[in-house]
Fold this protein.
Amino acid sequence: MQKVIPGLVISVVFGVTAPLAAEPPGEGWELVFHDEFNGKQLNWNVWTCEQGTRRNAYNDPDDSYLDGQGHLILRVRKAADGKYHLGFIRTQQEFQWGYYEARANLDTVPGYWSAFWLWGKHSYDADYKGAEVDFLEDPRRDDTIDHNIHQGEGSTHLHEGHVAKFKGSRQDWHLWGCNWHDQGFDFFVDGEQTWTTHTMKASRPNWIYLTQEAKFEGWAGDIRQSDSLLPAYWTVDYVRYYRKNPQAPVITVAPAQPITAGQEDGKVIRVTLKNGRFTNSLHPGSWSLENLPSLVSLGAVQRIDDTHLELTLNGNSRPGDWKTGLADVTVIAEAGEVASSPALLIASHGVTLQAKP
């Protein structure tokens, strides 16, 4: 499991039909929390399971796990005890205003719903300074999802919501995002703004949730009708949280020459840093590339000057190792590679992997 520690994250594009990580709207964002779900075990120092019965199912820590390929899996199953067990996790750290984003696919089995959302100890307070914020709720199995905001409860309950459409299939990766600020909330799907509300505002901190929920009736249907289709799985590629910081270093990436599928060896990706400088002595072991085509890896890391470095690729992919279109390859450097900057940073403008020379 990659630890959530200060570092540098740069998105580079290489080959699957998936949207790239979308940069938050505007400028001056600093990535301060992320989990790319690497390794073999979920980091329970970062996440916790609110274990126990909720609605008509049981939140079970065994049903939130990593697949070893860089993804979080939340599983829904009917256990030997006859009860429905499912994945339900939240961060141990609380967050406030900022831009939240997760990349995940959508469910195809009916009877339950997956969600990416915020909630905190004061979300339902009667002073309306807290809020439950649902970036993604997926109760149906069509081409729509729900955005929702709840404040108060009982007689003080207030709600606003919006049904948003998405393009592509449910099996595709999609980006689910929201900019929570002092004037309200702006919601995004695949990098496009889908809903804005400035009538509901909140300032109290919340935890980040990635969950599944099931009932015997209601908007998502009856989980009991899906017994023959279980277990079912929801896959999350990453979750990220950005905070406004106008002085945050800004990184851009570009290929030094065209990068063609099957001819990656020796090709160079150039990295440019603004509002900071690279350390005098870079540590190649602190850098890694994720989601590269098979047989391709990061070779050398070379510092050019205070604000430029080059990443060299090793190896060549085979035709069957990549798909038509683009994929999201992420470059990660741990803390210490940018001088005097413990913050996480990201630039999602990618590098195109060409299909033909």
In short: DSSP finds no helices and 28 strands in the chain.
